[in-house]
Amino acid sequence: MAADALTAPAVDASGGRGRHGPGWREEARSDVYWGLAHGLPRLLIRAAARRGDLQGRLMLVPASGDQVWELLAQAQAAGPMIRSRLSYLTADHAAVREILSSPDFRSGRPTRADSPVERLLQRTVPRVPHPIEPPSLLVTEPPDHTRYRRLVTRVFTARAVERLRARTEAVATELLDGLDPATPVDLISSYCTQLPLTIIAEILGVPPAQRDLVLELATRAAPSLDFGLGWRQFRTVTAALRDFAQWLDTHVERLRRNPGEDLLSQLIEARDEAGALDDRELKAIAGLVLAAGFETTVNLLGNAIVLLGKHPDQLGRLRGDSALWPNAVDEALRVDPPVLLTARVCTHATSVAGAEVPAGTQVVAVLAGANRDPKVFDDPARFDVARENARDHISFSGGRHYCLGASLARMEGEVGLRALTERFPGLRLLPGARRRPTRVLRGYEILPARLR
Ligand code: HEM
């Protein structure tokens, strides 16, 4: 692809047909897919919510508001496993943990592999790599999942992450040096995004000149994890994923020809007894690591800055005892997690928390709810940077899909928050903060602040 094609998305942001866009046949197929995967569930969710169904209401609650906590408290009061009109739902810490770790539950769609609906979905799914379509790690199960994880963790080691600490500190300093304390700033675009984006771009060998493009593509593709997307939004997201895939093709080819010291170059070379990852697998993993590697960490930084802004006494404790920072990061992840929920499908009839769960049932596991389970966390809504069991949150999921980037995210959270609050002790948040419209990913889009 020509260099200028990297800066000009092949399909415009409204999802219209561009020069390299899909043909009409593919568009028609993708409309059928949207109807089955999003349109129909959307109607069902709305109908359930109108009838007062807790799960339906939870799925439609605006990402901007705090009503989510009220609904989750209602869910907890209704018992550990709730049978809704749509599926099962749990906001119970023990049940969420059990489901995520159980071999009786798998990730992916609830439809059976041999059902006519699944066959139609397979035939019509847009031919673009998607974070919740195979071979993405998120929806792959053993034995493939075990193999992918083994190969990725071979290069993504705790030691490799710890080596990045000094670099993360240097990037944070550089970014803070660039902020003008005399004028109000948007902390999300000037700091919370730039820090994890720079680090993950370096991990994956993305040249600095291409970071803004990656940011733009990932932002457009962020709602890809949401359920019940509207038709227009589905098209916009599909177009963004297609542009992202085209960019990634070029990037991987460049590293193949000219490998660097980065982890993606190592992953291209990584092999096990079954050989190297094939092209599709490699790009699915690289794409997920790149997107997951900063979208969520931006949310961690933004959510934590708001929590610290609302609780100056807690910031005061951190100033008095900097050894509390790692725990403060976990407490922020517990109280306002960057990922609201995930879901699993029961493969064999089983029971969880005393409830019978039939095979084929989908269970929505609300991570944010588990994190505020009063059976595990005293006064769960209280933000307490010294909470002893803050690390027992489930914001990084659990079991075999436990977040691959958890130690990187924790390190970036600690370095990023500490550097910001030490450099600008008089930092004040200004009115005008706005949350992102995404539902599964929870974070801020704009966070205006005065630095002194
Ligand atoms: C605060 C930041 C982060 C949060 C809250 C977070 C959260 C999560 C969650 C909840 C899952 C599992 C979803 C499920 O079980 O269905 C997950 C998986 C994953 N995360 Fe993260 N993540 C963060 C940062 C990162 C970073 C920095 C990276 C990359 C370097 C990363 C890479 C991944 C990958 C590759 C998976 C898929 C693992 C698998 O399915 O085996 N994440 N993350």
How would you describe this structure to a colleague?
It is built from 18 helices and 14 strands. The strands form 5 sheets. The chain has a 5-stranded mixed β-sheet. The protein has a 3-stranded antiparallel β-sheet with strand order 4-14-11. The termini are far apart. β5 and β6 form a beta hairpin. α11 (211-221) runs antiparallel to α12 (231-257). It is globular and about 60 Å long. It is of the alpha+beta class and 452 residues long. The site of protoporphyrin IX containing FE has 23 residues, from α14 and α18.
Quick description:
The protein is of the alpha+beta class.
> What's the multimeric state?
single chain
> How much of the residues is beta strand, in percent?
5-15%
Question: How is the largest sheet built, in terms of strand order?
Answer: 1-2-10-7-3
The gyration radius over C-alpha positions equals 22 Å
Helix content bin = 40-55%
Count of separate structural domains: 1
Categorize the overall geometry: globular
Biggest sheet record: 5 strands, mixed
Bound molecules: protoporphyrin IX containing FE
CATH superfamily: Cytochrome P450
Q: What is the number of E strands?
A: 14
CATH topology: Cytochrome p450
Output the number of helix runs.
18
Structural class comes to alpha+beta
Mean pLDDT: 90
CATH top level label: Mainly Alpha
In the CATH hierarchy, the architecture is Orthogonal Bundle
Task: Identify low-pLDDT runs.
Answer: 1-19
User: How many angstroms separate the termini?
Assistant: 46 Å
